[in-house]
Amino acid sequence: MLNMLRMDLRRMFRAKMMFIAFLCLSVGILISIITLRTVTDPELRQQAIDAGVEITSDDQTDFNAIRSLTETQALCTTIYSGSFIFVALYIIVVLFVCNDYSSGFAKNIFSFYGGRWCYYVSKLLCMTIVCALWILGSFFIFRLCCIVCGMDFARSALTEYLRVFLEYLFIGVAFSAQGIFLSVWLRSEGGGIAAAIVLAGGIVPVMLEALLGNWGISIVYKTLYGSVQAVTENINSGSPVGGAMAVTAVWLAIWSALSLFALYKKDV
Known about the structure:
With 268 residues, the chain is mostly helical.
């Protein structure tokens, strides 16, 4: 399995898709910081108003409150709450796994190594490493953009960064397991990318929440997308996060079992 993991990591780091996706994430962080700088600076905000942007008194209050956020609160609210990083991670999983099947690499691997569970574990560990690097990289890019743009948020303790890192990484692992299952089952890059947008992006959970809300049923916090929102709310308001981690663990177990089922039951 370690040999397979080394091959996966070598292929991942030689490919451009991981770096292109992180570059897009970095650009998103920069745009977010520039936007926050614009709305929180009185002079720049007035220029925006003069240019025709409508800003209400409630907006003014919200903009003034942004300056009191800590670094982790600002990072989670602007970057992670929209789940963009997990959509990008999901797409990388889909492209990586589907390429194995389209190129014949999966067939060779299964013939050589035999145990398909090794293939799944290797892919999951590889994507866990990618997710960890992205999260750490987002911390660095966020801090760098804040310095360049003159956004001075209240400093967050190292333990706070560590907690954010571990919680979002755990959710990223669960999303990766889901992506592996759909990639193995569908073997379609288009279908997998669509799933990344509607599932990891929260479109399906939010739509179901709106539909079922008419009957008083809430399901969004029982999804991985809901876990992302729960972690963000925990960072901002201190709401409990244990339930979100439990939901993430359950989904990780489910998608892992389904991935192994698909690997053993579907022909290459």
